[in-house]
């Protein structure tokens, strides 16, 4: 399990190093979530998840409010949610989630990112069956035993719970995202190092140095694309 957590940490560290880019992407994601329902996180669960993720990336309040105001103002800007699947070097697998107002542009850019970096696009379902949709939380200042007791008392089921790097990591079914969050908040835990809905690979692979360097270039190119929201993969980058 630890290696999967390492992949999440590597991705988060990469995004933390590109704040202006990630802030812009969160602005778009918040706008889309708010447009799909009410622009109020208490009545719009999808928006609530995005806002919790934004908090862990320290997205400025001004960017969040601007995106919400845009949605409230009835903007006619529309985005399609797309998922691409593909393969990198030596059997590595990649899932790319995107929000786009130009499907042809995004498809071409994602395909080029794969093909120019030793990968290739796959058909829908060619990769995703090897991943599990998972809610992931990272909590500091608590022990594994304390968090297990807390969640049991709140009658919240989780898939796995373990300590790593001074944090307690919780894996749960996506449907339990808000239940885990609320149980923590009832216990006075309001800050999470990670609060994500992600896709975790069922099995990680390790690449040799050359293949990993090529793979990391491909991931960097994909994550730099304006329309790409999330990138998931099965490579152990630790």
Automatic annotation (TrEMBL):
Residues 3-74 form the TACO1/YebC-like N-terminal domain. It is found in: Cytoplasm. Keywords: Cytoplasm, DNA-binding, Transcription, Transcription regulation. One of its GO terms (molecular function) is DNA binding. InterPro entries: Integrase-like_N, TACO1_YebC-like_2nd/3rd_dom, TACO1_YebC_N, Transcrip_reg_TACO1-like, Transcrip_reg_TACO1-like_dom3, Transcrip_reg_TACO1_YeeN, YebC-like. One of its GO terms (cellular component) is cytosol. The keyword Transferase does not apply. It comes from the Bacteria. One of its GO terms (biological process) is regulation of DNA-templated transcription. The keyword Thylakoid does not apply. Residues 79-235 form the TACO1/YebC-like second and third domain. It holds the Pfam family Transcrip_reg. Gene3D superfamilies: 1.10.10.200, 3.30.70.980. PANTHER family: TRANSLATIONAL ACTIVATOR OF CYTOCHROME C OXIDASE 1. Belongs to the TACO1 family. YeeN subfamily. HAMAP family: Transcrip_reg_TACO1 (MF_00693), Transcrip_reg_TACO1_YeeN (MF_00918). This is Probable transcriptional regulatory protein M3202_04480. It comes from Halalkalibacter oceani.
């Amino acid at each position: 399990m630890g290696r999967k957590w390492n992949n999440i940490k590597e991705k988060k560290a990469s995004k933390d190093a590109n704040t202006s880019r990630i802030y812009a992407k969160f602005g778009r994601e918040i706008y889309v979530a708010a447009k799909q329902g009410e622009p109020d996180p208490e009545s719009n669960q999808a928006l609530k998840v995005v806002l919790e993720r934004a908090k862990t990336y320290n997205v400025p309040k001004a960017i969040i409010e601007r995106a919400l105001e845009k949605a409230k103002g009835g903007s006619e800007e529309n985005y399609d949610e797309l998922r691409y699947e593909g393969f990198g070097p030596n059997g590595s697998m990649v899932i790319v989630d995107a929000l786009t107002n130009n499907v042809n542009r995004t498809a071409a850019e994602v395909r080029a990112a794969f093909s120019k970096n030793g990968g290739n696009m796959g058909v829908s379902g060619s990769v995703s069956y090897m991943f599990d949709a998972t809610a992931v939380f990272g909590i500091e200042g608590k022990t594994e035993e304390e968090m297990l007791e807390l969640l049991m008392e709140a009658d919240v089921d989780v898939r796995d719970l373990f300590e790593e790097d001074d944090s307690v990591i919780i894996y749960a079914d996506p449907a339990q995202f808000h239940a885990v969050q609320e149980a923590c908040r009832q216990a006075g835990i309001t800050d999470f190092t990670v609060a994500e809905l992600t896709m975790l690979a069922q099995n990680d692979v390790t690449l040799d140095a050359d293949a990993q360097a090529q793979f990391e270039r491909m991931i960097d190119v994909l994550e730099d694309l304006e329309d790409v929201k999330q990138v998931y993969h099965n490579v152990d980058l630790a």
